[in-house]
Amino acid sequence: MGLWSRYVLPRLVDRLCGAEEVSALRAEIVPQARGEVLEVGFGTGHNLPFYDPAQVERVFGLEPAEEMFALSQRRAPVPFPVERLALEGERIPLAPESVDTVVVTFTLCSIPDVARALDGMRRVLRPEGRLLFLEHGAARELRVRRWQERVNPLWSRAFGGCQLTRDVPALLRGAGFAVEALREEVAPGGPAIAAYIYRGVARPAGR
Length: 207
Prior knowledge:
The chain is of the alpha/beta class and 207 residues long. It has helices at residues 3-17, 20-29, 66-72, 114-124, 142-158, 168-174, and strands at 35-40, 56-62, 82-85, 99-105, 125-136, 177-186, 196-204. The chain has a single domain (3-204), classed as 3-Layer(aba) Sandwich (Rossmann fold), CATH 3.40.50.
């Protein structure tokens, strides 16, 4: 692991993901979490202040990067247990149908085998459970998408494998989720190639 990935990138991502505009989007999604929660891509803990302590029993934070998780320790304590799972998104070490909510925020873009990771999220969700997502991805506007495709190779190398061109709703449906309450927009304060936002709720289909 190079100096950029170990020391610079975690702090850069922490700063970008903590921007006021991004926090406003988190405030719409994260408080909907209930019960036993799995957060995939826990990162530096930006979602912690937005969980409703009256509704959340425990958060499993799946985060393989020690440097990212260490930064989360600076945040104010929360009144529910937070347990780190130090594994990648493709390796969720929880039993089938063991959590009520899965939360993914700005995570699906950077998991190498995102289909496998989504299969795992569906596996651990209880039949009535929900997946809450807030992600950036492929823009609907063709001009912006073409720029995303041009920039993506360099962007991915600079930002730890982050992909600009993933179609989030299609990925969710392909993994067996029924997508509900989907909203799409270009978030204010960021370049359109990186700020096309999908947010909403998905449930395991066919259960």
